[in-house]
Design goal:
Radius of gyration: 21 Å
Largest sheet: none
Number of domains: 1
Structural class: mainly alpha
Number of strands: 0
Distance between the termini: 44 Å
Helix content: over 70%
Number of helices: 7
Shape: elongated
Order of helices and strands: HHHHHHH
């Protein structure tokens, strides 16, 4: 974990964060404008489970029969892109964490980052990837008794938004700490100059 944290801290820059943000935004545009409409059309108006909130196991089970061969093919393409999106989004947030932590200049926070704090944004990434596997299995090759997998996948899906909320709340705190650290150093320099 510390090797990955150190790598994130080393490669983090505003440019790398912007690059991963741009990739994530392009992927959202492709998913929203290119990949979701064929699924909605092929299923007769059903949004992909991934973007349906709230979502229960019953919602999944009642929607599975609407995934005909055309919808399954469209969903496979959607899933392939939806594997890259959470990784790029997690990397963007992780790079932002690293930049904000470095900007803060607080040694205790930099130490926490190197011990794994900058990897926190990958928790929703892992949740999203596990959710994608569950949905993919249910849609393309449903088990004989899909209720257990539907229940587990719905539960995983249900924690995705709260996990993302924790990431963004933490990001907000890091912005405040970065501003506080920058202000503290500016004041120290101002006093020394006087």
């Amino acid at each position: 974990m510390s090797r990955m944290s150190n790598w994130i801290m080393r490669v983090a820059s505003w440019q790398t964060a912007l690059a991963t943000f741009t990739l994530a935004m392009v992927l959202i545009a492709v998913i929203t404008n290119v990949l979701i409409p064929p699924i909605v059309t092929a299923t007769g108006g059903l949004d992909p489970f991934d973007i349906t909130f709230p979502l229960s196991a019953d919602d999944i089970l009642s929607g599975l029969d609407r995934y005909n061969a055309e919808a399954q093919r469209a969903y496979l393409v959607f899933t392939l892109v939806d594997v890259v999106f959470p990784i790029s989004s997690g990397l963007f947030s992780s790079l932002m964490y690293a930049q904000l932590i470095s900007l803060s200049g607080f040694p205790w926070l930099i130490s926490a980052a190197k011990r794994g704090l900058v990897l926190l944004p990958f928790v929703p990434t892992l949740i999203d990837l596990v959710e994608n596997v569950g949905f993919h299995i249910l849609i393309t090759s449903p088990p004989i008794a899909p209720s257990l997998l539907a229940s587990v996948t719905a539960a995983v899906h249900g924690v995705k938004l709260p996990a993302m909320g924790v990431i963004w709340a933490t990001m907000s705190c890091l912005i405040v700490l970065a501003l506080a650290g920058k202000t503290k150093r500016w004041r120290q320099r101002s006093k020394t100059s006087s």
